């Protein structure tokens, strides 16, 4: 018996997207599996990606790297994007993780621990993590990868992309022979010139579009479904849910579905949320509550126990995110632990 709400992850689609991104970018993909593979489950996703040939992975935190090392074994390189804060090098060394060094303090911590292989982040204009080019350290032992991150990769027309690319290209010449990685998902589609030696996509591997819409060559990976718990006909003038968020001006057949904000179905779906049910997209009605949401199923042939799709092949993740006033990244990483992940492939 499936759980009332499930997140199904299609690992074949993930594998296909991995290869598609490599083909588009023309250089190897080093998958980003931070935040538990954007909520889809890093153990399953990274294991499959490794079977598809990936040998270098990125996480955000050391704790994520420790878990990933246990899952994947000794072979792959695992980079930790937030680097190595003072006092933390030991934890990274113990799990054979590679910090992406962002500051002089991190570099001192890593050298002090005789840390070995690591990466270096250059800030080419985003003003987030990394050394400004003029402060970048001399090449040092253990340095294997130099990276930078695009601020506007999801806007192909944004002139800042080209500026960041030029800054990166130039600073990278200071580290001859060191692997260069520049592009996240959006950057993959900015080619030519943005690939350098290795790509670092996250969201597009998981089926989301860098521009709020997936490239047609990418497949949906994640499907969030919820069971219909009850169906009722709401008379004219009556309301549905908290705060009378929906008032029926015509008799309305309403399906109460097992997905609420405690599952990660954002309350901000009101008033624009839609779900795929009975072969079509139907509006959510009123407020999303903790455990359930209401959907207009007037005129549809649906029954208790049927499942509605909140996002997946029929309701694009990016469209669902837009309806909730957010982006695919946040929608995926909001799905809570109450929702079991089921894997296909
Ligand atoms: C999260 C992240 C990525 C992946 O970004 P997507 O837009 O999901 O492809 C790549 N590089 C860095 C530094 C990141 O923080």
From TrEMBL:
Catalyzed chemical reaction(s) = L-alanine = D-alanine
Top-rank taxon: Bacteria
SUPFAM superfamilies recorded: Alanine racemase C-terminal domain-like (SSF50621), PLP-binding barrel (SSF51419)
Function field: Catalyzes the interconversion of L-alanine and D-alanine. May also act on other amino acids.
Kindly give the Pfam families that the UniProt entry links to this protein.
Ala_racemase_C, Ala_racemase_N
The lineage is: Bacteria, Pseudomonadati, Pseudomonadota, Alphaproteobacteria, Caulobacterales
Q: Which positions bear N6-(pyridoxal phosphate)lysine?
A: 34
Q: Know the name of this protein? A: Alanine racemase
Q: What class of enzyme is it?
A: isomerase
- Alphabetical UniProt keywords: Isomerase, Pyridoxal phosphate
Q: Record-annotated residues binding substrate?
A: 128, 290
Pathway membership: Amino-acid biosynthesis; D-alanine biosynthesis; D-alanine from L-alanine: step 1/1
Task: Kindly list the cofactors needed.
Answer: pyridoxal 5'-phosphate
Residues annotated as catalytic:
34 (proton acceptor), 242 (proton acceptor)
Q: Where does the Alanine racemase C-terminal domain lie? A: 221-344
Q: Tell me which family the UniProt entry assigns to this protein.
A: Belongs to the alanine racemase family.
Its EC number is 5.1.1.1
What the entry lists under InterPro entries is as follows: Ala_racemase, Ala_racemase/Decarboxylase_C, Ala_racemase_C, Ala_racemase_N, PLP-binding_barrel
């Amino acid at each position: 018996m499936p759980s009332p709400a499930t997140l199904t992850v299609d690992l074949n689609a993930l594998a296909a997207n991995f290869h598609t991104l490599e083909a588009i970018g023309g250089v190897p993909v080093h998958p980003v599996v931070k935040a538990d593979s954007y909520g889809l489950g890093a153990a399953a996703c990274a294991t499959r990606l490794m079977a598809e040939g990936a040998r270098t992975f990125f996480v955000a935190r050391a704790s994520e790297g420790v878990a990933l090392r246990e899952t994947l074994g000794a072979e792959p390189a695992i980079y930790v994007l937030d680097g190595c804060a003072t006092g933390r090098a030991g934890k990274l060394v113990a799990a054979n993780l590679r910090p992406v060094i962002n500051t002089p303090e991190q570099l001192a911590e890593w050298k002090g621990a005789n840390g070995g292989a690591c990466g270096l982040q250059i800030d080419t204009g985003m003003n987030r993590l990394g050394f400004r080019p003029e402060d970048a350290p001399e090449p040092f032992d253990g340095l294997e990868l130099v990276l930078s991150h695009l601020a506007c990769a999801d806007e192909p027309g944004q002139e800042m992309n080209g500026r960041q690319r030029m800054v990166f290209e130039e600073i990278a010449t200071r580290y001859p022979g060191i692997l260069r990685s520049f592009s996240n998902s959006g950057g993959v589609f900015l080619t030519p010139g943005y690939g350098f030696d290795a790509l670092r996509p996250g969201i597009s591997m998981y089926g989301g579009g860098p521009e709020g819409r997936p490239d047609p060559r990418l497949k949906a990976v994640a499907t969030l479904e919820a069971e219909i718990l009850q169906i009722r006909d709401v008379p004219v003038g009556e309301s549905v849910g908290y705060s009378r968020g929906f008032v029926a001006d015509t008799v309305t057949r309403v399906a109460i579905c097992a997905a609420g904000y405690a599952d990660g179905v954002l309350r901000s779906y009101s008033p624009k949320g839609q779900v795929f049910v009975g072969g079509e997209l139907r509006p959510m009605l009123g407020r999303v509550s903790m455990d359930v949401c209401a959907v207009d199923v007037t005129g549809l042939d649906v029954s208790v126990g049927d499942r509605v799709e909140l996002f997946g092949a029929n309701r694009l993740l990016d469209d669902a995110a837009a309806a909730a006033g957010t982006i695919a990244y946040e929608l995926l990483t909001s799905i809570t632990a109450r929702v079991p992940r089921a894997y296909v492939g």
